Automatic annotation (TrEMBL):
DUF7726 domain segment(s): 85-156
Sequence intervals crossing the membrane: none
Listed name of the protein: DUF7726 domain-containing protein
Region described as Disordered: 28-77, 277-305
Stretches with biased composition (Basic and acidic residues): 277-289
GO MF annotation terms: DNA binding
Length: 305
């Protein structure tokens, strides 16, 4: 089946407006004369991205008191992407948004205002997972257009906040923490019925160890866990830090078994194990013997009587 190729014009939310001018993702040349851009055009280099200061009136986008990124020296509105095909899938655009928000340079509300969509649309897009899920949200083409303009203008994205560690940063560990698990599929994944062969205490131990890795943030981990839920266990809104804290604070082999965080974290760590080619642990093998092919029961919480 041929993939559908979206363009900015086809998928843009009405809130973004229509950018007039060339379709080839070039900066509108509003001034000529002695500007270096004129020399480039004269020599036939019309396809080279040109950053020219804009002479149009200031943008009328509504202002927000939320935290914004530093204003780029290049006017991104002078870059016209009308009709340009969207060259990144939903997962790639979503990852860029999350990295930007994790950097602390801008809040979700401010970013939504910046790209001209509602916070509801942006939140809805961020809570989906997979390369194709989320294309119906206005935030998808709007965010792609925003990041593409930055790329053309040569404006780099803010770096993620560095975490302090006792042993220093480890690029290898950070790369492992950001491993792509989209190519690992488990039996029963779609209806959220993957057999679980870890106790709640074992999952809590794995969570604690994972969060100590350089480059891993709690926010990213919760997004990773949320992405593993595809059926009835998937929450209506993203997991919050308080939910994770409550699960981590409980004790007992089955205490917390009904929590979607427990199930989602198990699927996440199981995919990590398979991706990294690691063998099953002794605990895992013992659980398989004890519970059989169906895994532990998640219908009963160990705290219930």
């Amino acid at each position: 089946m041929k993939a559908r190729i979206l363009t900015v014009a086809q998928s843009r939310s009405p809130a973004l407006g229509v950018l007039p001018g060339a379709i080839n993702a070039q900066v509108r040349q509003t001034q000529t004369g002695n500007h270096p851009a004129a020399g480039q055009a004269a020599s036939g280099q019309e396809n080279a991205p040109i950053a020219v200061p804009s002479t149009k009136p200031a943008s009328k986008k509504r202002k927000s008191t939320e935290q914004h990124e530093p204003v780029p020296s290049v006017d991104l509105d002078s870059i016209d992407l009308e009709g340009a095909p969207i060259t990144e899938n939903c997962g790639q655009v979503r990852r860029k948004i999350n990295n930007l928000l994790d950097s602390g340079a801008v809040t979700k509300t401010a970013f939504a205002n910046e790209i001209g969509v509602s916070v509801k649309s942006l939140t809805g897009f961020l809570t989906t997972s997979g390369p194709d899920n989320g294309s119906g949200f206005a935030a998808y083409p709007a965010a792609w257009e925003y990041f593409k303009k930055r790329e053309i203008a040569g404006v780099k994205l803010p770096a993620a906040k560095k975490q302090k560690t006792s042993t220093g940063s480890s690029s290898k560990a950070a790369a492992s923490a950001a491993v792509d698990l989209s190519d690992v599929v488990l039996r029963g994944e779609d209806p959220d019925s993957v057999p679980v062969f870890d106790s709640c205490d074992e999952i809590r131990r794995k969570i604690n160890a994972h969060l100590k890795k350089p480059g891993v943030t709690q926010a990213q981990f919760l997004r990773d866990v949320n992405a593993q839920l595809k059926g009835p266990s998937r929450p209506g809104r993203p997991f919050q830090g308080g939910q994770l804290a409550r699960f981590r604070e409980t004790k007992g082999a089955l205490n917390g078994a009904k929590s979607p965080i427990f199930y989602g974290a198990y699927v996440f760590f199981e995919k990590m194990r398979i991706k990294e080619g690691k063998p099953k642990s002794k605990h895992r093998l013992d659980m398989e013997k004890q519970w059989g092919s169906q895994g532990i029961s998640r219908d009963h919480d160990g705290r219930e009587r």
